[in-house]
Please model this.
Amino acid sequence: MANSPPPGPPGLSRPASAGPVPAEPQGARPQAAADPSAQLPKWAREIQRFLGVKSQFVLSGNVYDVYPIPIPGSQASGMGTLDAFLRSILAEKGYRLFFKYEPHSLSSLMGIREGEAPEGLELPGPGSLVTLERLARLARDLAARREPSAILVSYASRLPDLCPQEYQAFLYEFYRLSLTVQAAAGRFSLIVWAIDKENDLPPWYRNSRIMHVPVPRPDHDVRRKIIRAAGPVIAGYRETASSDPERLRSLVNRFADQTGGLYAGELVSIAAMAAQDRTDFTRIGDAVRHYKLGVPDNPWDKLDRETILAGDGALSRRVLGQERAVRHSLDIIKRSVFDLSGAQFSPHSQKPKGVLFFAGPTGVGKTELAKGITELVFGSPENYIRFDMSEFNQPHSDQRLMGAPPGYVGYEVGGELTNSVRQRPFTLILFDEIEKAHPRIMDVFLQILDDGRLTSGRGETAYFTDAVIVFTSNLGVYRELPGGAREPLVTQDMDYGEVERRINGAIRDFFTFTLNRPEILNRIGRNIVVFDFIRPGTAEGICRKMIANVIERLAEARRVTLVPDPAAIPALCALASRDLSMGGRGIGNALEECFVNPLSRGLYGLGALPGDRVRFSVTAGEDGSPGIALQKL
Model:
């Protein structure tokens, strides 16, 4: 194999990408490989295998990336773009001439020396505009020669727009050539198309001599080769390679695990960023995260032991009567701080930081606890993203989350979920009332919970690896009857153990039998947190907290100080807690009726001014309805 192509003649340019970039550290190369072809990706081995029976290859997909190019006599690899990669494998198989065509220009990648042109081959002069007709003539001339040669038609998906007048005749000429060309020394003179999608060539452009070869994103093995080629620019790589090869192998595997789904060129960019930021290779995971999320600042690294230890009290004061839910949620946060989410399945797990499924009656604090976790971890209770899943109950609703596919209305806007997470990767994402979403939405959640990423219709990837995912649900609280009425499945007279058992059973039945998607439940695991009903003792604490909120709001907004009569607050709590079926929201609604509304009327009647201190007490009207009596102090 030739590693450095000779210079081209006047008029033919030679791209800088025409040769691989060897980057293996000095003295660290492995034993020589017996078969260099074994190091090639599967799609490249397919090309080599069919050189004697196919005259044209149509490469689609990942054709603008970089690829690992084997270095002769070594298991190490360099890196090169598609033209350099093809030049390498064609030279290995005895090809003598290799040209690359981009719209209106031609360059020589192999076989042409300065001032020379093969006998019988007319090449364009310096600065010549190379039309498709001129390219077809060159292809015919090469096909007539008794030595194997090749032309790479790059950016072929753009040709219909750039050369609309010539394109159809050009296609026909190349199609005819695919059938008439004769093999030379057991190999065909090739035409290699590089297109974005398989259907960028018309459906009729198919026959037994034309082979379509999809070029995928790099798999794990290819990523490891690229990492070893790009790694030496990163601090600590060479030292680890010489002192601890096993440690290096482990770090390379970790790098490859964390970059699943990325292009090889993106791995090179990560290596360049790590070198620029002077990130040691032992901390390569930080460079991967910075590249994916776009920000080096990580709030998870700022959480100290005191903050977490104080979190139990802070969350318990915020969400009253739900000690089990608070304790379970804090366990998830502690696990996330140490980056242990999913660690039992893989040491390099890319799952979200935490996943919680809050279930239970309405108004018991599910959303409030999600806000409390957001404040504890991300600094503000408003730093979360909320989706009301009742708005996603149509079959096409998943397009709102991910964005419409190319060619459809709204494609340029992107998805609500993917856009939000790309803008705020460190956040809590709340999917409220998940059971109301269309079943197709569950496929979206499966990808998020499994891989920690989601690709929008625009091809942009959002990463969830530093986010907390919270689902809420009322499953198991009511059952729909045939007439549309609802029958309660759990009631306040049941103890918590019975409530938990029934709700967990209803959730299991919903995912297993109603949706037929038990795999979603399996991804959530043991992170289902069942909230208890609001019990009478808890109800009084919630009521007192709400009254304190009203007093604080009035003092801040109007500088009016409310002073409760000693019997006022117990009386209001008794009134607001008569019916606990609607939980904390029901208490708040009752308090609005018996306290906030009459208080507002009384303040207007009293003519309260900023700086006033006003005492209030609870009274009974002539019809027995409660009222509020006010007196300036």
Remarks:
- Residues 38 and 222 are 12 Å apart (CA to CA).
